[in-house]
Amino acid sequence: MSTAILTGPPVPGSALEGELRALGFGVRVVTEPSQTPSVLASVPAGERVALVDSRFVGHTHSLRLGLTDPRFPAAAVPGAVTAQPEARPALAHALDTALRGAAPAGHEAALAPAHPLRRPMPAEGGAPRTEVLPETDTGGPLPDRLAGLLDADGTAVHRPDLGTLVAAVPESTQERNEVRQSVESVDEEAVRLRSAVKARDGFFTTYFISPYSRYIARWCARRGLTPNQVTTASLVTALIAAACAATGTRPGYVAAGVLLLASFVLDCTDGQLARYSLQYSTLGAWLDATFDRAKEYAYYAGLALGAARGGDDVWALALGAMVLQTCRHVIDFSFNEANHDAAANTSPTAALSGKLDAVGWTVWLRRMIVLPIGERWAMIAVLTACTTPRVTFVVLLVGCGLAACYTTAGRLLRSVTRRATRTDRAAQALADLADSGPLARLFARVLRPLGRALPRIGVPLLALLGAAAVTASAAFTAYGSAWPVLGAGVYVLFSALAVSRPLKGALDWLVPPFLRAAEYGTILLLAARSDTHGALPAAFGLVAAVAYHHYDTVYRIRGGTGAPPRWLTQAIAGHEGRTLLVALLAAVLGGSGFATALTVLAVLVALVVLFESIRFWVSAGAPAVHDEGEPA
Residue 39 burial (CB < 10 Å; 0-12/13-18/19+)? Predict the structure, then answer.
């Protein structure tokens, strides 16, 4: 339950109390400013509290945006300010300061209104009426003054962009009538629907999904459905699509394509529902982030099973598609983490990209080239319905490969032309994304003096050489020989040396993608070359479990909570330990024993990773991650 405190005598005819109750607030009224601290103190400490000027006039959605968004400890719109439990002490201190009429030293301006107020305009044909409504305090509305004091004291106050929505505290009856006319002139529902759509999205999503999915989101909101329920429905729909593809029949493939598109519509709807009704949550952020990958990779598995029913083995292609797509995401994540808080972060390439943004058609072309999730799923759905799984995977691999080349080339150009000072936080994020296990950490400590002597370009080069050593030995030497084990040993040493010092170089963001490609690629190559029934499906399961762990790491870092605990990385051996173990299993077991070992390893990794991930996201109270710019 949340509590709203109306400051000042109620205004006759005002619907403010009803609007606040409709938003989930219990309402208390204080007629004198001196009563406010005691009423504020009486609200349970674990509740959100809002102070709203009783003269407030505006759209209900303005209040919703300013007072109910769970992502921000403190927020404000003109005439209203709110604080969640963690910001309540700061609000109480600001209230005490405001009522005493003194700002903290050096912050005297904080007592001025935090938002511009509407002033009476001359009436047509004469002077305006000057009847003054009850004041809550001198110096502007009390909530606006509190918002300014919170800012001055270092508590960040979120102020949503209201656009054409109205939020004001009129000072006279005439001005109140004028503001009401402004409210009536704006279609609040149209604004709310428009703001529910992600500001930056792909061409297919923008023009073929969002025009109607926003109305599905509204339908869900009016029936009390939550974004998490819609997310789960999207997952279930995708799993049914995968099951249809697994039948290996043309009707099954057609149904699978249709259901995959339906799943994507629901996937867009859940985010739009969250923005429409401001139903953000930590659990919802985790579900949305992980279910997209689960849906896509489950669909790959369904296609592979369907092809097998028709006598075509495409498991290697399915696993290759998963490896390529995951590595693409790691490139995006690593580059963004390395640069988003870097100082002096400019480059001619980035400037050129900014200029191209002013040319509309180039924006859509560049968004389509990277094959984002909307375009990718549409392509997969159409190819599934009209062609075969093999054709689907070949086209997908070619398309994603070209997209990866385009995006990586752009990032390389930006990196080599950029003058940037990268932070310790960025270096730690890259180290966490590297996912180094006990062996790499041990050798990194031993080899640290040598690592410090390396030139900057030597860090990603070492990771690349280590990845090349293990994947080449798996691809070009006799299966079952000791060469892949030797290549894995070289990989352990080189990857340890690459992370033996902080990853602050211009190209150090390449280290995690090289390590992901080495691990996933080695598993794929050894399983494919084993020529053993069940090896590739088992490898698919192992890579899926490890990839989930890496996505989980990304979203923990984005949420500001850091990487998973050290014990988890040690329990699943880190990237280098898993790569070495798979190479050893291939050399020692071979045949059906290798497939069985991969299956057992996949199950063990999945159980440990899922246990820790679910425990963390459900109970740890991590901040929500609502990404408006999800990579492809």
Answer: middle
Q: How far is it, in rounded angstroms, from Cα 80 to Cα 70?
A: 16
Confidence of residue 343 (pLDDT cuts 50, 70, 90): low
Residues 82, 86, 88, 90, CA torsion sign:
negative
Return the pLDDT at 296: 92
Tokens linked to 587: 């050399």
Instruction: Burial-class residue 76 by CB neighbours within 10 Å (0-12, 13-18, 19+).
Output: buried
Whether the per-residue pLDDT at 165 is higher than 50: the answer is yes
Model confidence at 357, pLDDT cuts 50, 70, 90, reads low
Task: Note the residue count of the chain.
Answer: 632
Q: What is the pLDDT of residue 352?
A: 54
Separation in Å, CA 398 to CA 41, 127, 381: 63, 72, 16
Distance CA 357, CA 351 (A): 10
Name the one residue in this structure whose structure tokens are 């080069």. Answer: 461
Q: For tokens 């579900």, name the residue.
A: 287
Nearest to 322 by CA among 309, 303, 340, 341: 303
Q: Tell me, what DSSP letter sits at residue 200?
A: S
Decide if 597 contacts 530 (C-beta within 8 A): no
Q: Residue 432: count other Cβ atoms within 10 Å of its Cβ.
A: 19
CA distance 15 to 588: 77
Give residues with Cβ within 8 angstroms of 377, minimum separation 6: 260, 261, 264, 296
Side chain identity at residue 89, one-letter code: P
Q: What is the DSSP string of 331-393?
A: HHHHHHHHHTT-EEEE-HHHHHHHHHTTSHHHHHHHHHHT--HHHHHHHHHHHHHHS-HHHHH
pLDDT > 90? residue 114:
no
**Rounded to an integer, what distance in angstroms lies between the CA atom of residue 378 and that of residue 588?**
43
Residue with tokens 């006039």: 57
Residue 580's pLDDT band (cuts 50, 70, 90):
very high
Per-residue pLDDT band for 627 (boundaries 50, 70, 90) equals: very low
Predicted confidence (pLDDT) at residue 127 exceeds the cutoff of 80: no
pLDDT tens digits, one per residue of 230-241: 999 999 999 999
CA distances from 227 to 23, 259, 281, 487 (A): 18, 19, 9, 47
Q: What are phi and psi of 494, to 5 degrees?
A: -70, -40
- β-pair type (74-77, 80-83): antiparallel
- Answer yes or no: is pLDDT of 71 > 80: yes
What would the pLDDT profile of 19-68 be if each residue is shown by its tens digit?
999 999 999 999 888 899 999 999 999 999 999 999 999 999 999 999 99
| 302-331 per-residue burial string, b: 16 or more CB within 10 A, e: under 16 | bbbbbbbeeeeebbbbbbbbbbbbbbbbbb
Residue-level pLDDT at 422: 82
Under DSSP, the state recorded for 560 is T
Longest dimension (CA), the chain: 98
Tell me the C-alpha to C-alpha distance, in Å, between residue 257 and each of 55, 214, 242, 328, 465: 54, 22, 9, 24, 41
- In angstroms, the CA 67 to CA 84 distance is 10
Tell me the C-alpha distance between 504 and 426, whole Å.
8
The DSSP symbol for 478 reads -
Task: Report d(CA 296, CA 198) in Å as an integer.
Answer: 21
Q: Provide CB contacts within 8 A for 348, sequence distance 6+.
A: 417
pLDDT in tens, 430-454: 999 999 999 999 999 999 998 888 8
